[in-house]
Specification:
two-stranded antiparallel ribbon, 2 strands, mainly alpha, 9 helices
């Protein structure tokens, strides 16, 4: 069994720590009252005045430089006083982390259960996923604007995969969402499901959802559509965003 990996600290951290240690050592070992002269404190005052005067400019310059070199990401969560956030991270890593966290509860995208899942709720989940990717991918838009300053490779790949996700979900939703929802609302409102044998009555509210869905007039088509979405997310999205799907596999 391997040992625990040690955390690497930034050199700036060690530099500040050493400076603080030196100051504490000097204060404990030497009499610094000799520094108590008017000239010394006047010089300190002048230096501190200039330093704090240019400090905001230095911070802005460093912040701009880090944005241009793809080290930080700037993101507005909400247009409100409490929703304005600065996220200090690589945009690609930030995006992958957000997507992985979102998909961590979206089992039906990777593995749908035709016997347990309610197709109406699943369609809602798919649409929310579609909107999520359209919104979150904006953090990658800046990569195209920064041109040669940016880390093109990883962000371009994430942008490409995200466009595929949007295309696959859009195609599925456009094909099946409206038709299924109209049918589902009708049978729910009337509490009756039409069958091939009209003498047989299926009551919506006392019948398992898996049985009700099988009477949808395009049942096999929508099942095939779900299967194609699952295949795409398993083959492309799972590895790209490092989503843990093992937890959804049923024990044999």
């Amino acid at each position: 069994m391997g040992g625990r990996k040690m955390k690497n600290y930034n050199p700036l951290f060690w530099g500040i720590l050493i400076i603080i240690s030196v100051i504490l050592f000097l204060c404990s070992q030497y009499d610094l009252s000799v520094l108590n002269t008017n000239r010394f404190f006047q010089n300190i005052k002048i230096i501190s005045t200039y330093f704090f005067g240019v400090l905001p400019l230095l911070i802005l310059m460093v912040f701009f430089l880090l944005l241009m070199t793809n080290k930080w990401a700037f993101k507005i969560e909400k247009l409100s006083l409490g929703g304005f956030n600065l996220l200090f991270d690589n945009p690609a890593k930030l995006y992958k982390r957000a997507v992985r966290s979102f998909l961590d509860t979206k089992r039906s995208l990777f593995k749908i259960d035709f016997e347990l899942d309610n197709f109406d709720e699943t369609l809602t989940s798919y649409y929310k996923t579609y909107e999520f990717f359209r919104e979150e991918m904006k953090i990658l838009d800046n990569e195209k604007k920064r041109g040669r300053w940016s880390n093109r490779g990883e962000q371009q790949e994430l942008y490409r995969v995200t466009n595929e996700v949007i295309q696959v979900l859009n195609e599925f939703l456009t094909t099946h969402q409206n038709n299924y929802r109209r049918w589902y609302k009708r049978v729910a409102d009337t509490n009756a499901v039409a069958t091939i044998n009209e003498s047989e009555v299926i009551y919506f509210h006392i019948t398992p959802i898996s049985e009700v869905q099988k009477y949808y007039y395009r049942y096999q088509e929508i099942c095939d559509g779900f299967a194609r979405v699952n295949l795409f997310f398993k083959s492309t999205v799972e590895n790209t965003f490092e989503v843990n799907t093992v937890k959804w596999e049923r024990a044999t």
